[in-house]
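Human:
If only I could read backbone structure tokens as easily as an amino acid sequence. I am handing you a single protein, as its sequence and its fold in token form. I hope you can help me see how the letters and the tokens relate. Thank you; the sequence and its tokens follow:
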Amino acid sequence: MQLHPFFSGVYNGFYAYFLIGRLRKAERVKDRVKSILFGLVFLIIGLVFMFVFGQISELRCEKPQLYVVQCSLEQKFLGVFPVSSKTFLDVNDAWVETSCDDDGCSYRVVLLTSDGQQPMTPYYSSGLGAREDMAWEINSYIQAEGTAPLFLTEKSGLFFALFAMIFVLVGLYQMIVKGILQPRA
């Protein structure tokens, strides 16, 4: 059965309108998927950097005997959630380890124990003076005759964790607002 040319044109017009609508919808879905993937990449990068650099190291040293120093190092994510804990027996010395590249130098405190060299943080950071002060306090404690405990906190990673939080927020914004809640056009 042949349609009248008028109805054939109307049918073809509706069919073309339907196809164009489907193509537009497919483009919107494609854009949303891109936004969600882009946001997911930013979110993952931000979370990894927050976890690595957002650790605060708390060192507690005690003297069970004169000139015998035992230290425990606890690392906490953002200073709240415990990540790891280590105990160092017979701490003998502390110094600042330096790592230099084209951008300059960065530093971290290293303890010499009966088990070898143990860094206080898994990363290097700026601020030589603060690291030297920390090493000096540890060495003074080792040489002192008193038995009161020593408490030190290394918070240099908090700034980097806050900076990494920008990546997390951009990733969440991109995923939620641009990818999921994007108004239908």
Notes: Residues 96 and 133 are 10 Å apart (CA to CA). Residues 55-155 form one domain. The longest strand covers residues 55-65.
